[in-house]
Amino acid sequence: MFDIDEELKKIPEKPGVYMMHDKSDAIIYVGKAKLLKRRVRQYFQSSANHSPKIKRMVEQIKWFEYILTDSEMEALVLESNLIKENSPKYNTMLTDDKSYPFIKVTVNEKYPRVLFSRDAKHDSNRYFGPFTSAHAVKETTEFLSRLYKIRSCRRVLPRDIGKERPCLNYHIGKCSAPCAGLISMEEYRRGIEDAIRFLKGSHDVLLKELNEKMKSASEKMEYEEAAMYRDLIFSLKHIIEGQKITEDNTQDRDILGLAIEGRDAIVQVFFIRNGKLLGRDHYHMSVAEGDDVADILSQFIKQYYGGTPYIPGNILMRSVPEDAEVIQEWLSDIKGQKVSLITPQKGTKEKLISLADENARIILKKDAQKIKLEEARTTGALKEIEALLGLDDIHRIEAYDISNTSGVESVGSMVVFTDGRPRKHDYRKFKIKTVKGPDDYKSMEEVLNRRLKRLTETADSFGKTPDLILMDGGKGQVNIALSVIRNIGLEIPVAGMVKDDHHNTRALYFNGKEIQIDKQSEGFKLITRIQDEAHRFAIEYHRKLRGKTQTRSVLDDIPGIGEKRRKALMLHFKDIDRIRGASVEELAEAEGMTGKTALSVYQYFH
Asked: In CATH, what class is 253-366?
């Protein structure tokens, strides 16, 4: 039994992260503190002036745990990671998982490349962006390749110089062919430096140079070359037009705007690089009750900038978070340069924040209906299921299914839905080990035993207790699950999907009785989606194993036939029947086959 008062006395006065758990052991809140003892005790002091949100949360806390860190900054990083991993009910969450393109210059290579990149990292390469348009990135990299003749191949240079002839890009004027030694490293790198200057915003000088070259070529009546410069000038102007000038200041900055309505918020971000607006985008936040502007922006900054490869020197916003000093230290540490959180009160910068706020309000108003529909089919549907079954606080639902063909290669699937949405990285597959033949009950018993015993053995997603288990069947399946749960010493509610004659769900079996469910309700639709997903996942795994078994039983048991020759035979003959009917000479025609292995295959089938 966890004695909260006693455990509070044991907390050290050190920095760290604390996690609050409810009766089902789910993490409902994650927080950080400079002094853990003081911060955690505040939640349980009757005299504390808590917000309604905190009061409701404290009522649900059954136990807590904490992790000590060496500094408040380490606590901030750990807090951010734990929030992303566990999606606690009372934390404000960034719900968008967007990936934006960058331009990557591989300056760590002897002969660098300029590439489109989504997998940007904190490494020795240089990244420019983010861009909100993948087309803009591809257009820019294409322009730089034509202008500076930069390679895009994966050859390792200078190691591979002279090993192969120049590729097509050289012949169409898009590469200077360093692979063939047709340009020195020094000259090639000068082109890369010019490309970097362009990406940093030095457009006017380049435009002037191209105009002069076009004019010179035209005067010499080299009209083909003049036309090439004309096309480059047109491309350059098109790229520049996509970047709206905001001010002369050359510092990089992000402008954060915010609009809140109930439990939803939109954060609008303007990406300003070298005084130019490269793009803008918005992010949806699921707001914890009672959080104000500063709280929401604090959570956004920690969750967003903890995962983006580029952090600007300044982040401007309406209200600086309470933990701004620690956040600045953390972001500066990641960037390797000073990062400042700023709240301008007047002037151009304040007007930019107002513009971002206005954009956020417009988007929130426009997306309100979409947000409501999504809420109805997820959290709204969960509330319907809770009311139907008389349960509270359902967040994590697990559903199971068995798939086999006459008992061959029986497999089980486990799918997970959190707050009404599939959580695919928590899905699990089970290859049935102890059951022979088509016995779905015994197979399900094995799957549940293997899964539920892991609750006390691991800290990964298998260590999370489901709030509800859904079985793809009625009384029999439910009783199997309850028996496993009781034997392990757990208490988890289990509901079964009762089918009609067409194998469609018509009711739920729960607590020993059938409960009718409205087929038009969002709750029913969610149950159907979960059921279909469990079927799909099990069948997909079963087909994969069955395919491997069929191929292996026919070819891999033949002496001398390994994976490469098996693939070669299948590519050459297309199916097993043609291999079975082929002569020794025909078998030897497949790639990698010898007379000996061809004879081995022939004798196996005959």
From this structure: alpha beta
Distance from C-alpha of 570 to C-alpha of 579, rounded to nearest angstrom: 8
Q: Which two tokens stand for residue 81?
A: 């990671």
Q: How many CB atoms neighbour CB 261 within 10 A?
A: 13
Q: What is the pLDDT of residue 240?
A: 62
What does CATH list as the number for 4-91? 3.40.1440.10
**What is the C-alpha separation between 544 and 234, in angstroms, rounded?**
52
Is the pLDDT at 546 greater than 70? The verdict is no
Put simply, whether the predicted model's pTM sits higher than 0.70 gets the answer no
Count of beta carbons in the 10 Å neighbourhood of residue 486: 11
Residue 279 carries which side chain, given as an amino acid letter? G
Q: Is 399 exposed, middle or buried (0-12, 13-18, 19+ CB in 10 A)?
A: buried
Query: Which value, in Å, is the radius of gyration of the alpha carbons in the chain?
Result: 31
Report the C-alpha gap between 210 and 233 in whole angstroms.
7
Domain with CATH 3.30.420.340 in the chain: 396-547
CA 188 to CA 171: how far, in whole Å? 17
**Cis amide prior to 101 (ω within 30 degrees):** no
Residue 570: pLDDT band with limits 50, 70, 90: confident
Per-residue DSSP letter, 489: T
**What count of other Cβ atoms lies within 10 Å of the Cβ of residue 536?**
13
Structure tokens at 24: 């089902």
Q: Residue holding tokens 């620690």?
A: 326
Per-residue tokens: 129: 């962006």
* Lowest-confidence pick of 175-189, 263-277, 378-392, 554-568: 554-568
Q: Taking 90 as the threshold, does the pLDDT of residue 218 lie above it?
A: no
Residue spans in the chain of domains classed CATH 3.40.1440.10: 4-91
Query: Considering the domain 396-547 in this protein, what is its CATH number?
Result: 3.30.420.340
CA distance 321 to 329: 13
Q: Which two tokens stand for residue 262?
A: 């109930």
DSSP 207-227: HHHHHHHHHHHHHTT-HHHHH
Report how far residue 355's alpha carbon sits from residue 365's, in angstroms, rounded to the nearest whole number. 15
User: Domain 558-605 - what CATH class?
Assistant: mainly alpha
Cβ neighbours for 437, distance < 8 A, ≥ 6 positions apart = 407
Minimum mean pLDDT among 158-172, 397-411, 461-475: which range? 397-411
pLDDT band at 245 (very low <50, low <70, confident <90, very high): very low
Quote the CA–CA distance of 535 and 191 in Å, as a whole number: 56
Q: Are strands 396-405 and 126-128 parallel, antiparallel or unpaired?
A: unpaired
| 82-112: pLDDT as tens digits | 887 788 888 888 776 556 677 889 998 999 9
